[in-house]
Amino acid sequence: MHEYIIVVYGASGDLAGRKLLPALYHLVAKHRIERYIIVGAAYEATTADRVMDRLDTFLHDVDKEKFAQFRKNFYYHKLDFTSYDDYVALKHQVNELRVTYGFKAPRILIYLAAASDFFCQITEFTARAQLAERSNVADGAWARLIYEKPFGSNLASAQKINACIARHFDESQIYRIDHYLTKELVSNIALVRFANVVFEPLWNGRYIDNVQITLLENDTIGSRGPYYDAYGAMSDVVQNHMLELLAIIAMETPERLTGDYIRDRRAQVLDHVKVEDVFLGQYEGYQQELNVRADSTTETFAALILRINNSRWQGVPFYLKTGKALTKKETKIHVVFKPVTCLTETCPAQANVLTIEISPEAGFSLQLNAKRPGQRNELMPVTMDYCHSCIFGKQEVQAYETLLEGVMNGEQSVSVRFDEIEAAWRIIDAIHKSELAVHIYKKGTAGPEELADFNKKHAIRWLS
Ligand code: BG6
């Protein structure tokens, strides 16, 4: 049975409470981790109990006994990311716990659920205080570090952070996270595409008219003002989740569907992305959110037209749309096929569409044209559905569970390689340079009214 020491920097924060600690609980409850100690470290003067109490809101179907056990193995250590002495004290605590638990060759997992401005400092002090020191490597002990997204705030800062990390740890120990990569339906995209002969031959500009990737949210930025105002939609979700979705959809066939084979292919796509046009928006009242600048022009809405400069995707626009405070929470990809030559009196009103729904339901559907009952050759759209969550159940925290398990198993494809991150920042940096107008929209709507002009100019028909 493997032993784990898990250190979570930023344990009292939003991400740890909403996603990371619940995912760890579920892994424990499913017996994927049995011998473990979790030490949360953050600046807040709080206690292990209070951090655990907060999980109540985010944990469902809790087994009381298992959760009591999970609580018992969770410790909290107040730590200032910039104070080396705090890391030394943390190391002492970890050492003591290790003795108490009788761990011989623990695997060490360090999770940086912190702003990327601190990545270099945390990495350096973690290394110096020997918190990620591997013991008894022969017994399968390892130390791995997980870095939350966004990795940096532009290309230059990402490169600086990466160089800093590389001074202390080997690339094989580093996992740069994008939790979208481990959402069930996202990992399904490549499988569906490459395992079904009906899709792959059509997966190019000859048969595909356009691809739409939409990540819509009804929530506002909530209490994340300082972070969000510095990043905006473009760096918060386009640079990572949405461009990774695009890379998976558009990549060439990898030799195998694992590790660097996939990462090579994703990076190639991102290297060939060209920005055609961008439209930005901000929801009304955003400037009054807590810790947001009163004259902020940070975008909470973005629509983009991208092209991929290679022979497969000649002539195919990729439309991306995202926003906060919209009508619904939903992430979908629509692959819209070209219309067929019309042989009937009434031609199909709609082309075939493959829709991959990532959330709230996981599944995919294929829209076809079929005959309307009756004498005439009239067509109507029909949909073939595969509802993944109807069969396998809802998967609230599963992306983080899969991600943690992937890292524990050394599966590199659950994380983003640095060349992918660099390519994605190049795209975003270029957009930021153009200082676009930001259009205001009302909360709870589909976005700024001016989007209609943008759609008209580019003949875009959004399917969601
Ligand atoms: C995070 C962003 O990475 O992804 C958030 O920082 C966003 O702003 C979230 O809300 C969306 O993820 P999910 O899994 O809820 O769709």
What does this structure look like?
The protein contains 13 helices and 15 strands. It is an alpha/beta fold and 464 residues long. The strands form two sheets. It has a nine-stranded mixed sheet with strand order 14-13-12-11-7-10-9-8-15. The chain has a six-stranded parallel sheet with strand order 3-2-1-4-5-6, with helices on both faces. The radius of gyration is 24 Å and the shape is globular. The protein starts with a strand and ends in a 6-residue tail after the last helix. The structure holds 6-O-phosphono-beta-D-glucopyranose.
Task: Give a quick rundown of the structure.
The chain has 13 helices and 15 strands.
Largest sheet: 9 strands, mixed
User: Per CATH, which architecture of the largest domain?
Assistant: 2-Layer Sandwich
Low-confidence stretches: none
Overall geometry comes to globular
pLDDT averaged over residues:
93
Give, in spatial order, the strands making up the sheet with the most strands.
14-13-12-11-7-10-9-8-15
The CATH topology of the largest domain corresponds to: Dihydrodipicolinate Reductase, domain 2
The fraction of residues assigned to DSSP E strands is 15-25%
Descriptive labels:
464 residues; Rossmann fold; 2 domains; 13 helices; 36% helix; globular
Strands, helices and their partners?
Layout: E1 3-9, H1 14-29, E2 35-42, H2 48-54, H3 64-72, E3 74-78, H4 84-101, E4 107-112, H5 119-128, E5 143-147, H6 155-168, E6 174-176, H7 184-195, E7 208-216, H8 225-250, H9 259-271, E8 273-283, E9 301-308, E10 318-323, E11 330-337, E12 353-359, E13 363-371, E14 379-387, H10 388-392, H11 398-408, H12 418-433, E15 438-441, H13 451-458
Parallel strand pairs: 1-2, 1-4, 2-3, 4-5, 5-6, 7-10, 8-15
Antiparallel strand pairs: 7-11, 8-9, 9-10, 11-12, 12-13, 13-14
Helix pairs in contact: 1-11, 5-6, 6-12, 8-9, 8-12, 9-12
6-O-phosphono-beta-D-glucopyranose (BG6) is lined by residues 149, 217, 236-237, 331, 359.
